[in-house]
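Complex 576.
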Amino acid sequence: MDCLEGIGISPGYAEGVAVVYDYETDYRLEFPDRDISASEIAAEHNRLDDAVAHSHRELQQVEQSAGTSTSRADSSAVLAAHTHLVHDIAAKVKQYMGRELVNVEQSLDSVIGEAVEQMCQLENDYLREREQDIRDVGRRMMRHLTGAPQFPRGPLPAQTVIVARELLPSETIELSQAGLVAIVTELGGKDSHTAILARSLGIPAVSGLFGVTSQIHAGAYLLVDGEAGRVTIAPSSSKAAEFTKSREEYQRSVAVIAADETLPCVTRDGIEISLLANIGRPEEVEQIGPHDLSGVGLFRTEFMFLESHKPPSVETQYEIYAQTAKALGDRPLVIRTFDLGGDKLPPFLASLPLGPHPSRHLRGLRFSLAEQRLFETQLRAIIRVAQSADVQLLFPMVIGGDDLSRAVAAVDQAVDELRALRRPPLGAMIETPAALFALEEILELADFVSIGTNDLTQFMLATDRDAADLADECTSWHPAVLRAIQRVVDAAAARNCPVCVCGEAAGEADFACLLVGLGVRELSMTPVRAASVRYALRKLDGAAVQELANQALRCVSPQEVRQLLAHLCLTGKVRP
Ligand code: PEP
Ligand code: MG
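Predicted structure with magnesium ion bound:
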């Protein structure tokens, strides 16, 4: 019996037979790489159009055979995003081919390579993990161009545990329809679409196991514990019995949580909490209904800029925001203006010659103020949509009254120029230490604030965003971060200003309880996390947790805070 310790990226327990999947060695075909003449371009375009049509059809088929309910909505959102990507990528491949005069496979490979490199440089885990989707779509299109085989070549055995270097999002959906019970990989973070889908589909997944495809042989019997991030190979009978007991307990609590999914999010003593969604693409609004969320608390709009070789026009952006607002009906949509700058530069700016380009050194709102034209186009598109929908505008990385007042002036000017009747409510992200010391100035100007615990934690604790997974010292549970949140909540309450928390920590059930104890009443999160947050909050005694939160503010370490909360026994075994 061997035991491998990795990171649990989707909770739950499953046992089954290992099927080893190595894309690089068994499924990737070498593709022809050659220069072409201008007269060959039309034929290459035809080949690409065929690959697009096949990819499109395949994605539709996968969607049609997806299950029902919540997991279907989550899968559909990913597949819809892939369908868009197929077309976007094809357009870029045609441009590349025309410019470089190389064949379609080489053009596709280069376009995907460039896009992936761009995304991998991003600090934001959510956006960085989207590079997986680009490779996923690229792989699908390449398969149709080269005729490479698709995994699996035949039916999967019952109770399959996939052991792979990496499993891409659409493979996760397809394999879930074919008998997959657990996923064991080297690569893949908790914010990847693969992890999000695995959680939604109830498939336990363990990642971070380097060299796992050579450590586990095909046919080995495995126990996968997605809670602890543990994989046991060829278990002893006592280990297997212990595992079965844990699995049964887990399944009972999952059933209880699922049953609460559509119940109001109210604590035992009647405190109402609004649960909202964080989305990064319009298609993701499909997840709002099944998870019974009150609207979108954070629409990250960077994708439009990072995936484009030219600045997206007002019209293009308007269509995207309007489509998202329409899908939400009368639920609110908080659109955050692009959070770019530093190493997060859209290709159309990154390709400018080096030289004096001041915005390169700026981030968030100050980057937007320096890239005035680009900012104006986005404001105009949002203001137009806000004329007929409940749309609110949120600025990232605000540091004080100066940058915020310049942003407000830009909105006012756009409202005047458009002769718009309604100025959307304006919000400021509180995610820099500077903003904590400029709360009064910010609250003077903002209609609402949203606390970004991802950045706030990294900047306050001098850490980086990935460290939160690795070191307990670096998390939002740190008392200093809690005191910062408290400060924002108190200052906002004094002015009757709504406060939302939209960092990832808001989607951790036990941290969400702590936030409620601190006085937060709006939480915005990745939709699949909502069920366990709702469950925990419905069990919560608001007065008791407020007392605990007060004690937490006086703790000296995140570990001490966790211990305090553990006494409350909030969420049982199930974590999102
Ligand atoms: C945050 O920093 O917490 C946040 C929500 O913004 P993003 O993750 O997009 O940086
Ligand atoms: Mg942020």
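Residues 130 and 192 are 7 Å apart (CA to CA).
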